[in-house]
Structure formats: C-alpha cells, structure tokens
Amino acid sequence: MVIKILGSGCAKCKQLEANAQQAVKELGIEAKIEKVTEVQDIVEYGVMRTPALVVNEQVKAMGRVLSAEDIKKYLQS
Amino acid sequence: MQAIIEVLLSGWQALVDYLSISRIIMLTIAFFLSGAISQFMSQGAVMKYFGPNAKKWLSYLIATISGAILAVCSCSVLPMFASIRKKGAGIGPAVTFLFAGPAINVLAIVFTFNMIGIDIGIARVLGVFFLSPVIGLIMYILYNKSESIDANASMFNIKDDSSRKAWQNLLFFITLIAILVSGVKHPIITAVFTVVLIIELILYFKKHELIEWCRATFDLAKKIVPLFLVGVFLAGIIQAVIPPELMVKFVGNNSFGANAIASVFGAFMYFATLTEVPIVNSFMSLGMLKGPAVALLLAGPSLSLPNMIVISKVLGIKKTFTYVGLVILLSALIGMLAGYIIYI
Predict the structure, then answer these.
(1) What is the spatial distance between Cα B46 and Cα B39, in angstroms, rounded to a whole number?
(2) What is the phi/psi pair of residue B72, to 5°?
(3) What is the ipTM of this complex?
(4) I want to staple B38 with a disulfide (CB 3.0 to 4.6 A). Which of A16, B71, B87, B271 is the partner?
C-alpha cells in the first residue's frame, strides 16, 4: 500500500503525515508513506486544497487534517 | 553598547505602545473572524466560479474577493493558483487570485485600519480591488494564446458537509463583522451584537463545530502572533536605526520615482504575514508619505523574492517577470494616485 501526503510543507501537512504514520503503526500494516511537495504534481491529482491524503493513487481527502482514526478507515476499506 | 541598548529599547517601546487593551480585544475578535472564515465559509460555493465553464467576469470578481472569503494561507495559494490556471478558468483569473489572495485577507485589512489609519486602509482595499482584475486581465491578453488548458470541471465541484443554510452562515458572519467594527468604541452596540451572536451559536451550530472554530482560531493566532510581535519590535528598531533624512530623501515625496522605490522594495522584501503593517507604519513616522506607503502595501504581501522563485517554477521565467513588473508598475501608479487624493 502506498500512502501519499500532498502538500507544500506547511504545518498542517506535517500533522497529516504524522497522523498517517500513527494510523499505519496502529493497524500494523505494510505501507509506504511518501510526500508530494511539488505544486505541479499536486495539481495532477486534481487537488487544490492541501494537505491531501492519497491512498493507492486515489485521493481520499483534501483541505483538512484527518485524525489517525479517520485515516484508519480509509486504509482498511 | 549604549547604542545597542537604545535600539533594543526602541523596539520594546514600540511593543508597549502598540499593545493596548482595546487593541488586544480588537485583534482577538479579528482572529475569531478569520478562524470562522477558514472553518465555516463554504469553499465549495466559491470554488465553482473558478471552474472551466464559469462565466469569465464572475471568475475575476470572485478571484478578487477570494482573499477575504477563503482565508487562504500562503501555502495553499499556489496549489489553487496552479489548479485554476491549468484545470479551470485560465491564467487571467488565476493571476488575479494569486495577487488578491494574500493582499486582501481580513486580518491584514483590520491591522491596516487599526494601526495606520482609515485613509490608508481604504486606499489599500480599493487598490487591491482595482489592481487584481487589471493585472489578471493584462496577463490574459498577453499570454492566453500560449497557455494550454486541460479543463477538469469536476475538480471545482466541491461538496461541503455543512448543516447550515447559506443565510444562517451569512447572518453569523455579518454579526461577527458588526462586533469587529463597533468594537470597544461602542460597548453597548457590541454587547447587543454579542448577545445576537450567542443566540445564533446556540441555534445553528453543533458543539463540535464550535470547538473546531476555537481550535482554528487558536492555530491561526499561534502562527501569526509571534511573527507579528517580532514585526512590531523590528518596526521600533527601524525607527531608531534609519535616519529620517534618508527616508525623506527617497520616499518623502509623491513623485513616480518615490512610489516606484516603495513598490520595488515591497515586491522584493519578504514580509512575514501582517508584519508589513507595523513596518510601513514606522516608515511613515520617519517621513514616508502616504502615496509610497500605499504602493508598498499593495506590492508587499503578494510578492517576495522567495515567493517569486516558487511562482517562476509554476509560471515560467518570462510570465513571472511580466507579472512582477506589472505589480511593481501598477502599485506605484496607484500609490501615486492615492497620494494625491489623500493629500487633498
């Protein structure tokens, strides 16, 4: 599973990354967390509001910091 | 040693002078308003005007006021700018948004009115309203042909999960703005509106929404207040360090040259959020005239050297040069015009 955090590096993006890491750890699954910081690449995902969460190349949420609990739901389904 | 202590004292004095109780109350209300905008303002309702099928004049209009209604932080300006340009309404509205977004945010406007004065505040607001669509339109005319748009209308269809109706949100924002405007000057009116606000909060809002609002406000304050205090401190130091003669020589008149110096300085200098306000304020007490002050405030928040480099990655060198040139030139012209009008 590949999880991508889209954002140019503001505080909210870092928070989302930390929450994603926590979610992965608590679920005990194999997942790679990558950061996408280039504006051009972010736009290609159809994302305007950062931070955004992408799981297996699908945009799951944008414009808000999901809690670890919320991220877990996206990882399990 | 003596000199250094004097300079530091001057910075300290600026802080003490600025932070009166009434100002702190005012700023607290302004932060809550900004927090509410980022939390409750329906972004979906606004975003659809940036889509590829939106009416062009509406795109420009919404882009111009976007800063006030979207509470865009500097890190979200660029992704939105790039999306509007490549997937939506095109380069014109995108550039309008890029310029207006940071320039017209509620906090910056409140601080300008509150710290520098009503005349400069009004000049700043009107200046942004005029410059944003004009700069966007010029960029459109110059470069529309060389743009490739890969329209994606669905991207601009954002659904908001809001339990409130539009008029309820509107009422809430109007009440907050009324409290901000009447402030400590008219305590009775403020008290009446505060009661209205509390009734609205009880009737229309869920508890978790209110907690999120407070959290958004607190996050905003945590990010901005320390930088702003440093800015006020620096502004005090500037007053002690820069000789007034120098300020008078360069920006102590309302010629085009003086306005251009101010707008070039504003464009290249990096101002952390809102710090342009205290710094311009101390420039003015050193002898900067109102025209150049307006020019600096117009060119300042939307541009800085680091931010030009990032924009050039998205926009390319040539278009970035044109954009920066337009901002500098037009800010100087508006500054000059404002300088004459306010002077009379």
Answers:
(1) 14
(2) -80, 125
(3) 0.75
(4) B71
